[in-house]
Design goal:
This protein is α+β, with helices and mostly antiparallel strands. The chain has 2 helices and 4 strands. It has a 4-stranded antiparallel sheet, with helices on one face. The longest helix has 13 residues.
């Protein structure tokens, strides 16, 4: 099951407008959190494909081509803890 994660779920507060959508400032902050993809673009959000209870794949919405396997540690893929692990896996993976 593929979960399209909305960063606003983990970042409620000043970066959201009254409708719960990301403000321009919020988008700027989140773009700085994610490193670029090997395709050359920086994803706006990450897609998490969970399998089993401990493992998942993460890829960016920019090209959906670069997948990184990581340990979800029994967290839900849409939880702030699960998204933190996905972001760490994305940012710490070597880029050639």
């Amino acid at each position: 099951m593929k979960d399209e994660y909305d960063f606003s779920k983990a970042k409620r507060g000043a970066i959201l407008d009254e409708n719960g959508k990301l403000t321009l400032r919020g988008k700027e902050l989140l773009e700085k959190r994610l490193k670029h993809c090997p395709c050359g673009k920086t994803p706006e959000y990450l897609l998490i494909d969970r399998y089993g209870s401990k493992w998942a794949f993460v890829c960016g919405n920019c090209c959906n081509e670069w997948h990184i396997e990581f340990r979800l540690q029994y967290n839900n893929s849409d939880s702030p803890e699960g998204m933190k692990l996905a972001i760490e896996a994305w940012n710490e993976s070597p880029r050639g």
